[in-house]
Amino acid sequence: MTETYDALETRDPAAREAALMAALPAHIAQARRHSTAMAGWLAGVDADAVTDRAALARLPVLRKGELLERQKAGRADDPFGGHAAIGWAALRTPRSARRVFQSPGPLYEPEGEAPDYWRVARALHAAGFRAGELVHNSFSYHLTPAGSMMETGLHALGCSVFPGGVGNTELQLQALLDLRPTAYVGTPSFLRILVEKAGEAGVALPLRRALVSGEAFPPSLRDWLAGRGITGHQCYATADVGLIAYETSAREGLVVDEGVIVEIVRPGGGEPLPDGEVGEVVVTALNADYPLIRFGTGDLSAVLPGRCPTGRTNRRLRGWLGRADQTAKVRGMFVHASQVAEVLRRHPELKRARLVVSGEMASDRLALRVEVEGAPEGLAGRLADTLRDVTKLRAEIELCAPGSLPNDGKVIEDVRSLA
Predict the structure, then answer these.
(1) CA 378, CA 293: separation in Å to the nearest integer?
(2) Hey, how many other C-beta atoms are within 10 angstroms of the C-beta on 133?
(3) Cα torsion at 39, 44, 48, 49 (round to 10°)?
(4) Which of 193, 283, 277 lies closest to 241, judged by CA?
(5) What's the DSSP call for residue 144?
(6) pTM (2 decimals)?
(7) Which domains does the chain have, with CATH numbers?
(8) 236 sits in which H/E element
(9) Tens of pLDDT along 371-400?
(10) Whole-angstrom Cα distance, residue 112 to residue 101?
(11) What's the pLDDT tens digit per position in 324-352?
(12) What is the DSSP string of 39-77?
């Protein structure tokens, strides 16, 4: 069995679930006490009653677009939109942020003082990083938190860090050859650039392992690096909640981090989907400093059945499978994934739905394809009325057999010709 970071990774799944659910009531109560936004967002929620996933699923999903709007609205007196429990003196918070970052949007994220604040050490350990190594960190150290996320995790492991940041390829290559680090963290594309530049110069890099993130890491690139002596692993993290899941030596999906509760929900809605169904990744991070509860990442994934062969017992994700925030403009009106989710909510007998936009621009055809057992009398007419009520658009209704629509998380498919 692969050496694990700590005993949490090999817990009995029932014990892990019990511990996570036991922590939820206090976490929600603390969030409402110290986060004005959470106090309003969860007004009327009995925190003591949120002790299982069914109760958690009844809470609203906070999506990135809503968080951005809340931050914009509160920017004059609170750049975090009331969501953070830490800040600085002007925000009258009991604890101070060590750093504040800006992600595209712009969205602002605080970094607290806890060691390994973003919980990345676990992913680094699974990728083979160990104490005493010098690690070349080519993630950004300005504006966004990626550089700090990795550095704090590396320090927690006992590694030394060269803060390469982004760009300056020639200088970074020179540092790699002079300092001889054994490991790399950064994007996979920049690692490939460094390896290719070294090859052009007729030298080999000293790197033996890498943890990459921020981009797709296809098996072809993983194998290309392996052919040059570098074992690469990937992790899934966001600036909002930190580490979500990480790859192990088994190369079978991504193991969910021990400090988060992950749900896969219907894109545009909040209903948890069965294991194996592709949907939006929704995360509750047990972080008292920045308590985002049921945060919709906008990413698509699915639960991978079974346990990791390395002995880790947490749930696994298939990996990044696309984006959940789907939108199309039809006959001059925007249609959103949340509207398709609302049609499904009003008709619980449906399994899946897919709104297909076809034809040519300015001559759109709309079809709602739904999975349902049999062909209930009058259902097509009722669905047409519901869709028109929700979207103000008319569409053909196609009743499909269960399992016939693709399991890819796509609820709006735009196949129009651009002619």
Answers:
(1) 40
(2) 19
(3) -130
(4) 283
(5) S
(6) 0.88
(7) 327-414 (3.30.300.30)
(8) strand 231-238
(9) 999 888 899 999 999 999 999 888 999 999
(10) 11
(11) 888 888 877 888 888 999 999 999 999 99
(12) HHHTTT--GGG--SHHHHTTSPPEEHHHHHHHHHHTTTT
